[in-house]
Design goal:
Layout lengths: L15 H11 L3 E11 L10 E16 L6 E4 L3 E4 L2 E6 L10 E6 L10 E9 L5 E8 H8 L1
Amino acid sequence: MTRIARGRLKVIPDGWSAHARPTAYGFLTGDCTAFTVGAPDDWTPGGGNNPTYVPKWEHAPCSAQFLGGGSKPTLVADGVEVVASHRISVPIASTWLHYGDTIQILDNPDDPALNGREFQVLVAESGTTNWTRDYLCQDVNSREVSAA
């Protein structure tokens, strides 16, 4: 019979987090910005009725990946079923985003086709590591195309 010494063995050694953090951040090869779209300004003759943009962050390292056919529908806002098209990971210390916030990919060397694209946050999840937060998002650009 094998006995396990409880309380004496460390599962995670001292300094492990500080040692592993640079490796985890190394996977965040892109650059993203995030903002909230506010209410439109008051209408004025000859003027616009443009929404205001409240920045959440101007630059943050990120990783964006397409969630192929294996992504599951996500229940959000009043029971509406929306399929998340992408997962975007950012450092956990980044300003928290909420449902409806927008992430724009500024530079994504892993998939340059995503550069300039905007994604609406549907759900925030714990990241795949202790240092990232994952956002399941809907591609705003493709949503606009399908509505046209």
